């Protein structure tokens, strides 16, 4: 195990890429679970005879787990490290998936909701590590939340801050690959023949999901995953004259407002996908539920392509500036979905999925930037924002029971909140350092400036250390 003070810059290249690849595999795991969720939402309406609002209990359980378990996951990882946090998340994830079996066999909707809650909690921990979807099963929701806290946080700090947003978009791209596999499986196995009105295939699918979780847990047990500590990150920042983490956590406004933006965006994203099958099948263009499920997988493919396209763009364009553009586009096309009939509305839906692609990882990296010793706690808070997915779908479902198309006004409000956050950061950066179009590594740039001043013979009197004219001190 690497020393507690390890940073990404101190890792050998081979060890760096091994850690990156293994943690990235976690995104595929919860992407598959999330992809199945929206298909099951529509399937349960048929099997259990429930309305759209009642079916969103799955989303409420899955994403509500993030709200409650993410802070606990961050505290656990702060004390025991990323690796043990991943083990905890994968264990809960597998337990939640296993308990889908009796829920499906005895056709208990409440059992599905409980299992979904458990699965969601596990994902939370992983996302916090890397960065740093609705059956009722407390284990599943809790497991995913734990995984997500770990994975998102870990990928964010595993390398140069300049490319943190691009790096996290790349890893989360594999979540997108898995998420469109879920609807494709659903269209093939849940809506065909006898399976359209039974739960026979659901139990087998989730048994396979449980086995996948156990296999990953086994691999991580034998992996020498380097630990990247908040103290090491803080020291790296302080060497560059950035001491924003010296302020208490409750004054880390960029992170706190990032949590608000993440809550609103995630709620909007989940609401859009949760009723997509209903939306497309009700547009009066001859699309059945089975075909709509297949189209949802195409929407997820569009989302995934957009995420990998975003990786390339983020290597050159400032993340806050790009997020501002994408947030405005999401707001516009969500209105298009709500007010455009027929094929035009479906076209707006596909475009909306494309512009959603980079939003979650970019919000995460912007909100957790330069947190130093607060990195793990901040990651837990931002992942807690995934809990927004529990509140938006019920609000949208209550409107959808009367008019599915107009219910898409609800996600519009979430995209507007995200746009306000992104544009606010652009304005703040402009006032502090001037307008920037290209992405930069602030730590490297400021270290370079300090070195040039030292080599040029410019010294800083002890009485003036920390003054803005001598060493730039960022206090966000």
Structure keywords:
mainly alpha, 73% helix, MFS_trans_sf, Major facilitator superfamily (MFS) profile domain-containing protein, 476 residues, transmembrane, disordered C terminus, MFS_TsgA-like, 21 helices, transmembrane transporter activity
Please tell me about this protein's structure.
It is a multi-pass membrane protein. It is found in: Cell inner membrane. One of its GO terms (cellular component) is plasma membrane. Its main location: membrane. This protein is an all-alpha fold and 476 residues long. It is built from 21 helices and 1 strand. Helix 12 runs antiparallel to helix 17. The longest helix is centred in the first third of the chain and has 35 residues. The chain is globular, with a radius of gyration of 22 Å. The N terminus and C terminus are likely disordered.
Secondary structure layout plus pairing:
Blueprint: H1 13-47, H2 52-55, H3 57-80, H4 82-98, H5 100-105, H6 109-131, E1 136-137, H7 138-142, H8 144-157, H9 164-189, H10 200-221, H11 230-239, H12 253-274, H13 276-281, H14 289-314, H15 319-339, H16 342-356, H17 359-367, H18 375-384, H19 388-400, H20 409-433, H21 442-455
DSSP, total strands = 1
* Strand content bin: under 5%
Number of H/I helices:
21
Class by helix and strand content?
mainly alpha
The string of secondary-structure elements, in order, is HHHHHHEHHHHHHHHHHHHHHH
Report, as a whole number of angstroms, the end-to-end distance.
34 Å
Indicate the low-confidence ranges by residue numbers.
Answer: 1-5, 122-141, 459-476
Supply Rg.
22 Å
Calculate the mean pLDDT score and round it: 76
**Percent helix among the residues?**
over 70%
